[in-house]
Amino acid sequence: MEDKAALLQKLEHKNARLNALVQKYKQSHHLQNALIQLSEQASTVAELSLLYPAIHNILQDYVPSKSFYVVLLNQFTNTLELSYFADEKDGISVPLHQDHNFSYGVTGYVFKCGKTIYYQGDEMQVAADKGLFRVLGTPAEHWVGVPVYREQSIIGVLVAQSYDKQQSYSEQQIELLEVMSLYLSTAIERVKKRELLESEVKIRTRALTQSNEALNLEVEQHKKTLERQHILFKISELATQSKHIEEVYQQVHEIIKSITYADNLYIALHDRESGWLSFPYCIDEFNHNTQPRPFAKGYSELVISTEQTQLIDDKRANILIDSGIIERPTQVPESQTATSWLGAPLKTAQGVIGLIVCQAYSNKHNFSQDDFELITFVSHQIATVLQAHLANQALKESHQDLELRVAKKTKEISQTNMHLHMQIEERKKIEQQLYHDAHHDPLTGLPNRSLFLTQLEKTLQHYQRYPEQEFAVLFIDLDKFKDINDQLGHQAGDQFLIGVGESFSQCIREHDLLARLGGDEFVILLTHLTCRQQAEDIAKRLIKIMKKPFCMKGICVQSGASIGITYSKKNYKHTDEIIRDADAAMYYAKNAGRSRFEFYHPLLSVNAASSRHVFESSHHLDSLPMNFRSSEIVTLSEQYQSETLLEAFGEHPVLGSTSFDILKKFAADKAQQLEVELQLLRNACEQAKSAQLAMILFPCSGLLLEKTEFRALCQSLKNLNIKNHICLLFNEQEIRYASAVQVSNLKTLSEQGYSIGLNDFAKDRCELNLLTELQFDYLLLSSTFSKRVLQQESYDLQLQGVLAITKIKQIKVIAKGPSILNFRALLDTHGLSLFVGKQHAINIPLIKNAPLNNEQILN
To answer: Is the pTM of this model over 0.70?
Structure first.
């Protein structure tokens, strides 16, 4: 018996082990299936809003989870937010009825503890009574919360709850929830990346669609242009064909039909001497009365008297009738009154000879603005053709009459006809010359104000339709032109203006327009621009060419050019606004020192009249409030370097907050600029000391390198004792044109152990010889060059040359430009690793005439 009992006990033990292994295998199998399904959902689900229900469905196969929700941490607000919610009893409004409820509830408690918590029955209420959390919503019989981790950080909580006492959670089910939570963050990231990818695809698709629409619009515009050109060709052919006048009228009708509604059309001629209207051609579904009539108050008379195209609908007809301008016959039935009427004058060199009219009845067609423009466009050509044919017809009738009555005078008539043709040709030449003289300057031969304003109006209208095709206007006033007239005479002044016009013409492109407004004022219209830099480059060429002295009769006079530039803006409605702004910018450039250019700023229009009188007294450099702005030098990953760029700014009464590089032009003399600049240097050193900056990059002007000013600079640097904490940055353009003394003093600074650098390098051109001739420690690339590197391959080749030289000479290269990651990432691929970071304002007022003591010296 004992052997049987022992054997039975062994069998029971083995059976228990087998059951445990089966349960363990089943649990592993469930876990594996759940993870596989989760991975499949993360790979196929397109949106997060679909991922959570999919996870819920997976859990319901293995865990009682009809009530299930997911709470994740919002990294920006640092609060727990509901991402998915499903509950048997509570609606979605219950967990959202108060702010930050998850932070105070049991879910927030799990988030703070960072571990799984399982409550049964009244255990949750007991814990709440202890003050661990608040009970929100309907109490559950079984509640389990599992923290969701991403790497080592908790990012949310996954919760399952049951309201059925019999439906509890086993250890295996809780373990399944914990494993699911480990993979949840990875699945969420995969779905988020998929959502981001799909969003980028949609954005790209939308951009391509918009580009395609723009291309289609351009194609349609091109088609319209070709159609108009084809119409002109047809009309031109009529002028050369020797057809009867009736055939010409029919051909004109066919041409009008091809461009607009013309079922009802008539051509009327006006005899100025008799004041009568005749109707040589009329096709109309109601009115067949083509008898001549005296000049009255009809639609036709309105077109002839105003010499303008008229578009009249029912509404405008009533207004014209009520005002007494138009008088309509009372016997005409309403059904036979035109509901839309379009008439254009037939203008020739002799004036209006008649009109051409299209009309529609019973609202069969309503003429539009496009119809208005088209018939206006072709009416001038038709008038010329009709005038020629009418003249030819009159001549033919006259010839026939003369041949019948006076056969002997045929030769004389023929000679008279030849003389008439010669007069017509001569008249055409005179008209062409008159047109040229009316639109060109008689001295320089350049277009005058009238032609320039006409072209500017067309450019403005084109820009309003196509704002991406930008333009600019340069208003140029010659400096010291009065001195040339006074010293060399007005004849020399005229020769000077002619030479200036020829020189300016060589500085612009073929499609740009140069005009003389009068006196010593010129204007240039630049079209097809892509950036403001193009206008700036042309202005620089004009200023450079005007620096050459004008010599005559052994006397040389130095002139120059002050240029105001206004760039195309959407709020421009009239050409006079553009000329006004360019003139204001030119006046500002002339008062700021002449031989320079300035872009228009809206503040230049404020109190423009009074500013002309107070400019000299209120804009001096030493009267402007000054402050500093700092920018850290960073890498692509936003790691701060030991260097900091410290730039001076001033509050100008017109320009507002402006850099010192521009404001230095307002100095009364060199002494004033030197005093302000050295004071800024002292303040910058004081700021570096208080902020404990290791190295500051401080922009300086080339004035400090001149003979007398350099001694003052050296003395200030010696007193400040900042040799290892400051780098003096000099503008690349100033160093390029520096004198031998300035270059020698720059080398002296380097030999004395001071760090020097080039600022705004390659803004207009890349001078590699500067890097080889002088020893610099820092090189700050201009933002213009940085952008061009990303746009044109030739600039990338220049950059590689710069990087090769700076690597050999151990010069740190720093790129300026927009403080955005994409911009820096693209420049990083081209070999740049250091960038100017965000700019921060530092409110340090300029302390005038305040000498430094020993405590103020930077150690």
So the answer is: no
